Amino acid sequence: MTRRIAFLLVPGVHLLDLAGPAQVFGTAGAFGYPYELHYVAERELVPSAQGLPLQAGTVWPELGPDDLLIVPGWLVPDPPAVTPLPLFDPASLDALRAHHAAGGTVASVCAGAEALAAAGLLDGRRCTTHHDLQDDLAHRYPRAQVVRDVLFTTDDRVVTSAGIASGIDLALHLVAGHHGPAAAAQVARDMVVYARRNGHEPQSSAMLRHRSHLDDTVHRVQDLIDARFAEPLPLSVLAAAGGVSERTLTRAFARATTGLTPLRYQQTLRVERAELLIGHGATIEAAAREVGFDDARMLRRLRSRTTSDG
Fold this sequence. Notes:
By secondary structure, the chain is α/β, with parallel strands linked by helices. The chain contains 13 helices and 10 strands. The chain has 2 domains: about 5-180, 3-Layer(aba) Sandwich (Rossmann fold); about 215-310, Homeodomain-like (Arc Repressor Mutant, subunit A), CATH 1.10.10.60. It has a 6-stranded mixed beta sheet with strand order 2-1-5-6-10-9, with helices on both faces. The radius of gyration is 21 Å and the shape is elongated. The protein starts with a strand and ends with a helix. This is Transcriptional regulator GlxA family, contains an amidase domain and an AraC-type DNA-binding HTH domain.
């Protein structure tokens, strides 16, 4: 199923706020995860904050519950105006509200949170924005629950990010949610980016945290573990996939991942997937079976070890 991603652009849009998420979804599309990107504005020609004019459509694509509407940030005066000029006409704010009401996801990068707030979508919800804009957002929209110093937040299909490069983290998080963390890791690796961990959200996974190295052999083995982490994967099978001996793989893996063995990496993926399932209502027994454990005892032990390590 193709997912439509609609970017709502305003004059003064920051190029990286737009290009970062667009690159993530575009790269995911190149790997066979179907995304269709649309760019919408109230006028066809949109000047960017960096001086490059952008061409956008003025007619909204038809969006369904599985689609995403995202508002990149724009250049904000320093200090922000006490009463900022309205950047969106009522029709655009209605489109944001209607998409969310129909079951769709809305997102923002940096100052784009202003649009979600103006549409009433941040009322009573956790959100964030660029650190320079957090106080202003909290002051003007007191019903918004502004979370400080995090990369992004998610709350009831409303996703907000801190700004600039964090839009990439947000988009990788959404790709992981749609297609699994292996897909996000594949995109992150191709883009040569390292998706940082959000202190308040279980951001995408160890697949991203332990993919910042440059060892192609270890990456090949991680590709296999990422795709089949719920299956038994003997060290001999992993070493054969990497084209090296078991001893060489163990040493290279530990060096590339700061001390992890292939088994510990696989267990970490299993635990993180189980935590996601439990967070969505699964019992610990059901989650354990889903990620490849015979029963819940091993999962309980590994969860306890993860908590004590953290």
